[in-house]
Amino acid sequence: MTPQTSAFCSIVPPHLLEHLARSSNPAVAAAARRTLVADAAARTFRVLPLPGAAPTLAPGDAGKPHRTVHDCARGTDLPGTKVRGEGEEAVADATVNRAYAGLGATFDLFLNAYGHDSIDGSGLPLIASVHYDENYGNAFWNGEQMVFGDGDDEIFLDFTLPVDVIGHELAHGFTQYTANLEYFSQSGALNESVSDVFGSLVKQYALDQSAEQADWLIGEGLFHPNVEGTALRSMKAPGTAYDDDVLGKDPQPGHMDDYVRTGRDNGGVHINSGIPNHAFYLVATELGGKAWERAGQIWYDVMTGGTLAPETRFDEFAAATVAATRARYGEGEEIQAVLKAWTAVGVPTD
Predict the structure, then answer these.
(1) Long-range contacts of residues 107-112, Cβ cutoff 8 Å, at least 24 apart
(2) Which range has the worst mean pLDDT, 27-31, 43-47, 75-79?
(3) Which end of the chain is less congested by CB atoms within 10 angstroms, N or C?
(4) Complete domains list, the chain, with CATH
């Protein structure tokens, strides 16, 4: 699969930042407006090769991470100054170390659970930049690398704090190199959902949690303590992640009856992702045990199976999960869990 030349995908949706930009709190509004401007610039920026020759991986390097973390020093020139490379000791900057560890946690899930060497399956070096811009309230994948803001310390804290945020953004790279789902409407919502799925699995794998033990929250720990909210999204209960005077209320639906039709946010990619998110949660908890083992394997098989078109819709993705489940597990409890989950969120599978 040929990767996209440019793929700006951020963890915080524009509708939320637009709401914050209208806040009566001047500091919150200014930070949100600055983030929106930076996002607009990054979204239209054509990805260029990173400085220096790309690393050539020796045969003995297969199955090993190749991480590099850079510091933007609150500027916007990417990638910034290299501050930590693969195998180097931790540095004094905790943000750098968290980014480095999160890249490793994501690499570990894909390799150990699925035999997938990095996000492209061929040992792609993982690159991150931290301290991007001033009071930048987002994190994004730009088609080549990860970028993290420090937050505004009013609504958002440091974006390297939740490991699932790191996993989520790198999973956009996984999608880019596999199914290459278009970032618009239902295929875009699936793109976002796949990132939430594997972001959550990165966290669960790192913590060795079962599906029952997991919180199924995306970005837990990202909000300032004064915010009335637990996370950016909830896969367990879409629409309940936050309800705050400044942030507003979480708009995610968990069922097709409440599907949001909008021209904003690329056709609601961050909003309607709650529907396939909830389906995955239902499959994982119905099967129990470690979610990456069976539920995650099914989603991985779909993404790497070569059957998805870039413009895949929810019902087509659901049908693909049914086919992948039958191919791997036959007619056992796995297929029943998958069929039951998609029915529960109102998505047909045939």
Answers:
(1) 107/65, 107/67, 108/205, 108/206, 109/167, 109/198, 109/201, 109/202, 109/205, 109/206, 109/292, 110/174, 110/198, 111/63, 112/205
(2) 43-47
(3) C
(4) 9-50+64-177 (3.10.170.10), 185-344 (1.10.390.10)
